[in-house]
Structure formats: C-alpha cells, structure tokens
C-alpha cells in the first residue's frame, strides 16, 4: 500500500495509479485547461483512459455554463463528452430545488448569475427571474429606492458567478431575503474564479455581500459539499471504492473527495501548490499528487498501454 | 446621578439632560430624518439647543455625500450648518490618507464609491480614479479578463457605499489588492444603508465581497472606530466630559460614543429598538434613550427655555 500523499513521478507510479481505479472524476479548469488553453497532453491522457476502459466524469463548480455549454467547451478542445457525464454547480442547484426542496411551481427563483443557471432551471421546469434579464443589468435608480419591496412570488434567491453583478441585483436579492421563508442558495462558495490564467472574484465573493447584509448563510451546492456527489450518484452508478477525484484545489476538489469518501489526486497546474501540501500545518491532503495530468500519458510513450 | 440606561420621558428628564451637556454630536439618518422626511420637531429641537448656547456637530457614516453636499441637505431641511460642523466617513478617509498615511502624491486611490469620496479626496489634494468614472460603470468585457493586471500607480483601494457597484469594479479592486502594499480602506462597515425608511445593502456589504475574495481586512474609518473622533478633535475643540453622541444604532453610534469616551443617547426612530437594549444579553448600552429627538423640544412647550 502507498502511504498518504504519494507523488506520482514515474511510469510505474502512473501505471499502478491507473490500474487502481475504474472511474475518474475530473475538475476542469486548472486540471484540463487554463481558460481556452488546453494543458499539455490532456487530450492524450483522456484518450488513454478511454482506451483502458475507464469511465470519465467531469465535475465543475463553474455555474456560468450549463452542461450543454460545457459539452461544447469540451468538444472545442476535441474532448468528446456526453451531457450526462458532466456535472456543474448550476445543475446541482436546479436538481436540489426540484428533488429535495420540491420547489413550488407557482413560485420563482431570483437568479444572481449567468445563463448556465437559467438553462439548468429551465431544464428542471423551475420558473426564474433576474439572471440575464437586461432590466437587472441597469444601475439602481432613485425610483428603485422608493418602489423596492418584498415579492411573495419569489421563493428562493440562487446566487452564482455573475459577470454582470451590480448594486441593483444586490438590492433585489437583499430585499427578497428579508422574508425568512425565501431560500438562500449558492451554486458554490469559491472565493475566486479562474480565467485566462488569472484569478477573479468567485461566486462566494459575490454572495458574501448578501451574507454580510442579510446576516443569512446560503446553502452551498457545489464542491466541496455532498449535494454535488448526491447529484452524481443519483444519475450514474459507479463503485466509489474504485473512483478517484482529480482536481487542482485543496479546499474544493480534494475536500470534496474526502467528503464523498473517494480517493483524490491533486494536480499542480492550478490553485494549490506543492508547498501547501508539504507544509507542517496542512489540513487537507490528497491521496496522490502529480505535476500535471498529462504526465499520466507517459505510460503510453513507453508502450505500456 | 442617573444610573445607566435612563429613558428620558418627561420634561424634568429632558431639562436635566440638556443641562448636562455643552456639545451635542448628531448622527443624521434615523435621528434627524428618514431619507427626505424630517422627523417631528427636529428643527425645533435643534433651534432650542442653539438658543441654549449648545454646540451642534453632525457626524455621518454616509460616504456618498461630501460635507458640502451634506450642508446642502441640512439646509434643504432648513437646518443651518457650517461645513466644518459636519463630519462624514468620506472626509475621515481623506484626512486619514493625507495626515496619517501621508499618501504619496505620485500615487492614486482606486475608489469604489460615489461623488462624496471623490470630493473629499480632491479637497485634500489626493489623486484618485474609479469612483464615478463612466468607464467603470460598464459591464466586464471578455477583453477585460485578458488585459486586467496590477497597477503600481494605485497605492490604495478606498471602498464606500456605491450605488453603481458592479463586477468590473470588484475585479479591478480585487486585482489591485493582490499587491500587498496597496492599502485597503473602507469608509464605514455598516451592513445596511437606510433610505426611504427602508434598508439597503451598506458599504460594509460591498467591501465584504473584497474581503472574502482577497482574504484581506480593510481599515474602517467611520463610526464606530476612533479615527472618526480623531478627525473631529483635530478640527474642533470641545470638552468631551460635556459632550453627548445622539444616534439610532447601537453597533455604530453608541459603540462610537463608548470608543470615544463620551456619553450617548439612543433614539428609537431608527435601526435599534427598545427591545434590543432591554434584552438580558444586550452588549452595547447607551447612557440614555428617548423615543425621538423631537421629544426634547417639549421643554420649550412648557416655557422652560
């Protein structure tokens, strides 16, 4: 048996790792690509997994895209994927509202977020407002201050990453949340959002303005929380003993694997660093780590397929 | 001697209270007015104080207005005031940057906020950008994600209430704050902003999105922190033993009075309620409280001037 925190660094390690698992769950950004740039030998590695009969599942906290858009994004990198192999935090939120909350059909969700959330709510037949509505992408007017009021038709506020977030949306969501019966949901509480190899404020940063102003804490649905795994397991059957989660962040991906009782592999191409996991006070540790996902492909170079 | 938490409720109480102090420091919204509506007998009470030779000082956490604009607002309610009797959190921030930080003339402050902050920075000769710039009131573009970078000319991010807050401003401030040398200042950390008798998200709610995304805590300059009182005392001489702060919020106004070692009067026309101060677990208590500021005017009705 390998001890905890094994660094995979040669062909033997890679082979042993690949042989240990049947199902490979992948975070995307920072693991497969940086923004629009695919990381080295990612496609080859995924091909290798398929050739070896492994199952691949994509799991992302990015709520700006629906599963359908994510499929397109994967395909733009020539990574074939089926919609039901893709799990996003917007999808997890929609499924949670539909199946757990049994959200009433006469009520609406006020969306602070992008098209991905709207598309997943539509797919589950949940009514919504806000989101990409151009009327909500305007500055707050003097009249808004006067006319703002609670709206009993709003049963939930669902917050995700919103590149059009503004004071008007903040005020609307704040006002609706004054009603303690209005649910407060968050697709994911990532503090940052990776794009173009840089960091920007994430969905958790947007929702923190609502948390601070209302004094309420949202239910967060993406990684590292178990709702996301409930959602995957409700849809796909796989042996958790033979599954591994591959991600670049200790506090979302690796913690998610731990919360879900599956093994984990950290790649060093994203947010978390080798220094963090080797630090004396490291709290969340993966089972394995590797410089980059493409290193696994070396087993193919050596003719070990 | 009155014990702590004396409710002023008759002419004798009012007279004894007025006789005890020379300087009356007033919070404005929730004490003198609600939005554009003056509270009953406010003007008469302020006139009475002047007739009795009392000094009046206005102290507001609202950074959207400069002292000049606040003077106009007071005058619109026929309350005469001099600019140097008015202290706002935007002014406190500008004075702090000028006198305490000695902000370098070759650097700029990135403003997340309204005209009030810009006017006070201008008055102290401090260069700034962001704020009311129409270019910052736009949605984030795909190009922004690519071109965003730190800017060594930005020496501080100063955040206040911003009715035009958006993801673009959040990203800019976040990016500048990645440089640990860039100061992070906040006019006031109020969670809510009162307007039209309602509550909206306040400056502290806006800054909390930066606090969460950057992991940095801003230096807050308005009430309840001592910087605001330092600012008042640097400008006006008065006997603190004979001064009383009058406000409607326990966590800002009354705590400010305590932090400044002056007596306090809570009015029940704003945020904090009688139930809160009478609760067994009440942590911040005023010395006195009264239903509304206009009640003090009753001493005049009885011919006691």
UniProtKB/TrEMBL annotation, chains A, B:
The active site is at residues 27, 29. One of its GO terms (molecular function) is alkaline phosphatase activity. Mg(2+) binds at residues 27, 29, 248. It holds the Pfam family Hydrolase_like. Keywords: Hydrolase, Magnesium, Metal-binding. Coiled coil: none annotated. Its EC number is 3.1.3.41. One of its GO terms (biological process) is carbohydrate metabolic process. It catalyses: 4-nitrophenyl phosphate + H2O = 4-nitrophenol + phosphate + H(+). Its cofactor is Mg(2+). Divalent metal ions. Mg(2+) is the most effective. One of its GO terms (cellular component) is cytoplasm. Substrate binds at residue 223. This is 4-nitrophenylphosphatase. It comes from Neolecta irregularis (strain DAH-3).
């Amino acid at each position: 048996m390998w001890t905890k925190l094994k660094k995979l660094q040669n062909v033997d390690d890679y082979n042993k790792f690949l042989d240990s698992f049947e199902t490979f769950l992948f975070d995307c950004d920072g693991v497969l690509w940086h923004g629009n740039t695919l990381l080295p030998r990612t496609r080859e590695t995924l091909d290798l997994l398929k050739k070896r009969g492994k199952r691949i599942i994509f799991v992302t906290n990015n709520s700006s895209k629906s599963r359908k858009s994510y499929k397109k994004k994967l395909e733009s990198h020539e990574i074939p994927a089926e919609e039901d192999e893709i799990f996003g935090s917007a999808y997890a939120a929609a499924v949670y509202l539909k199946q757990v909350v049994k959200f009433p059909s006469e009520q609406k969700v006020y969306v602070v977020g992008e098209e991905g959330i709207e598309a997943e709510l539509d797919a589950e037949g949940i009514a919504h407002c806000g989101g990409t509505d151009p009327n909500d992408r305007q500055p707050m007017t003097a009249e808004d201050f006067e006319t703002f009021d609670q709206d009993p038709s709003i049963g939930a506020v669902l917050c995700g990453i919103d590149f059009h977030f503004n004071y008007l949306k903040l005020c609307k969501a704040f006002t609706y949340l004054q009603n303690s019966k209005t649910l407060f949901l968050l697709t994911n509480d990532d503090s940052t959002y990776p794009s173009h190899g840089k960091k920007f404020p994430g969905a958790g940063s947007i929702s923190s303005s609502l948390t601070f102003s209302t004094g309420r804490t949202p239910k967060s649905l993406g990684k590292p929380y178990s709702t996301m795994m409930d959602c995957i397991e409700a849809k796909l059957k796989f042996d958790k003993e033979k599954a591994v989660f591959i991600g670049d962040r200790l506090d979302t991906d690796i913690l998610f694997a731990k919360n879900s009782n599956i093994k984990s592999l950290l790649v060093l191409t994203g947010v978390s660093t080798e220094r963090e996991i080797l630090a004396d006070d490291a709290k969340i540790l993966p089972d394995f780590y590797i410089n980059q996902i493409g290193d696994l492909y070396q087993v193919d170079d050596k003719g070990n397929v």
